[in-house]
Amino acid sequence: MHEFYQMPLFVKLKVRNIEKSKEWYANVINFNSVFDFPDANGTTSMTHLRGTKYQDLMLIQAKEVNTTDSVIINLFSSDIYSIYQAALDNKTNIIQQPTVQPWNAKELTLEDPDGYVFTITESVDTNKDFDTVIDNVNDQL
């Protein structure tokens, strides 16, 4: 049973093939189905997926999908390399391999089957405080 809570923010994504997308989200970024909403014919028209708490996505079945590079969805992970390996195994378009950034993050950027861009972020050093991280960023500018 999944925990019920009010979601402070979530994203709805139109997808061409909801079942294929559900499989990709489960296999690559470890998002699992919370529940499916059927249409009048009993076919899934919307599905609620969840990674960790407060990482909620709604996939909506659509005939046409118009993605844009104006939005990049960021997700925190504590195991970026398993997601990277799953992305490779599932022939995912990898925009950026896991790369250490000056802001104390390792980032992996992927594209889902419909062209939505996700950056998976993992902390590099959890012992660094905010000021140290910002000083490091400023030093690299």
TrEMBL record:
Q: Any idea where the VOC domain is?
A: 7-123
A Pfam match is: Glyoxalase
Keyword Transferase carried by entry: no
Q: Which InterPro entries did the record assign?
A: Glyas_Bleomycin-R_OHBP_Dase, Glyas_Fos-R_dOase_dom, VOC_core
Q: Which organism is it from?
A: Lysinibacillus xylanilyticus
**Example GO molecular function:** dioxygenase activity
Q: What is the protein's name according to its record? A: Glyoxalase/bleomycin resistance/extradiol dioxygenase family protein
Keywords recorded for this protein, A-Z: Dioxygenase, Oxidoreductase
Keyword DNA damage among UniProt keywords? no
